[in-house]
Amino acid sequence: MPTANTVVIGAINHHEWPVVAPWIRSLRGTGFDGRVVLVAYEDISDHVIDAMRRQNVDVRRAKMEISVNRGRFKDFETILAEMPPETLVIATDVRDVVFQSNPSQLSELLKPAEGLDIAVSSEGWRYCDSEWNLSTLRKVFPSYETSMHGEEVYCSGVIVGTAGALKQMCTRIWEISRTAPSFNGDQVAMNIILREPAFAHRVNRLNVRDGRVFHARATWLRRMQGGSVTGEPVFSLLTGMARRADGSLVSVLHQYTESKWERLRVLMRYDSLWIGIWYRLTQRFRSSANDNVYWKTKPAT
Predict the structure, then answer these.
(1) What is the pTM assigned to this prediction?
(2) 31-56 CB burial, b ≥16 within 10 A, e <16
(3) Which of 22, 71, 86, 150 has the smallest number of Cβ neighbours within 10 A?
(4) Domain span including residue 266
(5) What letter does residue 250 receive in the DSSP assignment?
(6) Strand 35-40 to strand 6-12: parallel, antiparallel, or no bridges (unpaired)?
């Protein structure tokens, strides 16, 4: 699918330019010159907005409802309604996502002939295998603990789909997550939705070995605990890049921030580390509303 038919969307609040620069720099670095839409909530500085617009980003100012994690789906729904329903859309987190190849290539994840118009990627474990995911499930949707206990966990940080299909999913995520007593309710909501009749047979569920969309946090945690999943992608500190088992590049790298060294290496790769150091050193000269540098941040998006 050509770049002209592909749109990348994201949402941010609280963060400064060193945090969000790798997202847009990596995206433009892949050669992607298509439309990028960024929902920016109240606590984003004007200079961050200006920097994004210099990268030809369509910035939409909005009032945050509840939290970025959940409220963005309400705003995504509005944006998606403006697009032709067949448009390829990649909806991502911003502060912990970089692109390693042109996202237009992710059109191969959708299989219209088979009715698959949405794609999500696994974290590589089930709820019962992940203490964090299981505790979040118990906290935000306790009535689903029994039915979801042994289910695979798919990450809401990167979702690929047609504009028409994603609009329906965003509507449903917002509908059931808006009352959840935690900012992480969006991911649990999405996993519940994947099992609902309206979505159960239209989502391409990628296992962690597929690797085109890689959620690095789960892999990092497994390795810290002495485990791994055979064939899952590997991040190289030497190159600052993640590769699949066959040596090809991961298309979208998510959650590179979880490991200190991986985070620093990615920031270096996209010339953001030095900006971050400068922000930290000059922090005392800026107003308190704008001193939220990367490693001393307000609540994360």
Answers:
(1) 0.90
(2) ebebbbbbbbbebbbeebbebbeeee
(3) 150
(4) 3-282
(5) P
(6) parallel
